[in-house]
């Protein structure tokens, strides 16, 4: 007959715990991810959406996706003629309604005015997509603090001003705020001869942003590997990331700018 001693029992329990805890973790992770809602275009049907920076680029493409899904859309940027064309195309694609407000996000009163217009024109708001970005030169910093201040107003303060103005309407509708940001890729356009990478397709990127907003995802990385991995490396080995980034820059061309 085999005799089971207290240390044997303790050891068995320890092994069980070691395998049980990861197993339970996997079960919980599976439940969490499988319970997630899937995206359906109908989620945006009839929703009232503001898209900033919608005269071109990713913002323009988001407006077209929303139009195909049957949303009410309010687009904004500085160039009214381009916005007019976006509105016309949105209506052709099936938008429930499409309207524009033109002006510069350098002016906080304009940022607030756009939100007010959403209330006047659409009767409320379900999604605020903050996407506009002020242009910057791509070279070594020349000490122009005024330029930085202007960029902060366009790329940061106007986002805050619009969010604060939109909150009452978003609370009422149970809506969402989508903030589009970039790791470095927008700089690539200003520096095609300096950065040795090509940008990802804007139509697909626009759709991923809308899906993330509709599903209320905390963060969406596009393209996942090329954005998420460098961010992880930044946290664990910032100098190695600097080295990788420098390898992708043609620094000789940068000096000429
Ligand atoms: N392109 C990329 O590869 C990439 C990658 C990752 C993330 N992103 C992010 O995606 C967003 C859109 O990028 P994008 O490449 O589509 O930009 P984009 O093509 O340069 O378009 C920028 C938009 O912002 C508007 N805008 C610029 N200055 C403004 C101002 N002072 N006031 C109001 N509107 C202004 C522009 O219209 P007007 O000139 O008519 O005002 C335009 O509609 C940005 O937040 C960017 O950081 C882009």
Write the layout of secondary structure elements.
Elements: H1 6-34, E1 48-52, H2 57-68, E2 72-77, H3 80-93, E3 97-102, H4 108-122, E4 127-130, H5 145-173, E5 176-179, H6 185-190, H7 202-214, H8 224-236, H9 238-247, H10 251-256
Parallel strand pairs: 1-2, 1-4, 2-3, 4-5
Helix pairs in contact: 2-3, 2-7, 4-5, 8-9
The chain binds NADP nicotinamide-adenine-dinucleotide phosphate.
Residues 53-59, 77-79, 82, 104-106, 131-134, 154, 180-182, 185-186, 199 line the site of NADP nicotinamide-adenine-dinucleotide phosphate (NAP).
Query: Which segments are poorly predicted (pLDDT under 50) over 5 or more consecutive residues?
Result: none
Strand order of the largest sheet: 3-2-1-4-5
The whole-angstrom Rg is 24 Å
SSE pattern, N- to C-terminal: HEHEHEHEHEHHHHH
Rough outline? globular
Description:
By secondary structure, the chain is of the alpha/beta class. The chain has one domain (41-247): NAD(P)-binding Rossmann-like Domain (Rossmann fold, 3-Layer(aba) Sandwich), CATH 3.40.50.720. Helix content is 57%, strand content 10%. The chain contains ten helices and five strands. It has a five-stranded parallel sheet with strand order 3-2-1-4-5, with helices on both faces. Helix 2 links the parallel strand 1 (48-52) and strand 2. The mean pLDDT is 87. The site of NADP nicotinamide-adenine-dinucleotide phosphate has 25 residues, from helix 2 and helix 6.
């Amino acid at each position: 007959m085999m005799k089971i001693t207290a240390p044997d029992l303790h050891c068995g329990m320890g092994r069980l715990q070691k395998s049980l805890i990861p197993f339970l973790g996997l079960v919980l992770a599976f439940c969490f991810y499988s319970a997630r809602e899937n995206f359906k275009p109908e989620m945006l049907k009839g929703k009232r959406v503001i898209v900033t920076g919608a005269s071109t680029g990713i913002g323009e493409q988001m407006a077209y996706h929303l139009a195909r899904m049957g949303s009410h859309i309010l687009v904004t940027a500085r160039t009214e003629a381009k916005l007019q064309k976006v509105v016309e195309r949105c209506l052709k694609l099936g938008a429930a309604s499409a309207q524009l407000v033109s002006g510069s996000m350098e002016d906080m009163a304009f940022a607030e005015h756009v939100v007010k217009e959403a209330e006047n024109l659409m009767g409320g708001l379900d999604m605020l997509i903050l996407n506009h970005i002020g242009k910057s030169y791509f070279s070594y910093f020349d000490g122009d603090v005024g330029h930085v201040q202007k960029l902060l107003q366009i790329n940061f303060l106007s986002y805050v001003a619009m969010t604060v103005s939109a909150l009452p309407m978003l609370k009422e509708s149970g809506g969402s705020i989508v903030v589009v940001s970039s790791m470095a890729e927008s700089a690539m356009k200003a520096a095609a001869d300096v950065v040795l990478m090509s940008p990802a397709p804007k139509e697909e990127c626009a759709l991923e942003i809308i899906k993330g907003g509709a599903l209320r995802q905390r963060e969406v990385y596009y393209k996942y590997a090329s954005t998420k991995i460098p961010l992880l490396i930044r946290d664990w080995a910032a100098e190695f990331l600097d080295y990788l980034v420098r390898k992708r820059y043609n620094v000789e061309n940068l000096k000429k700018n």
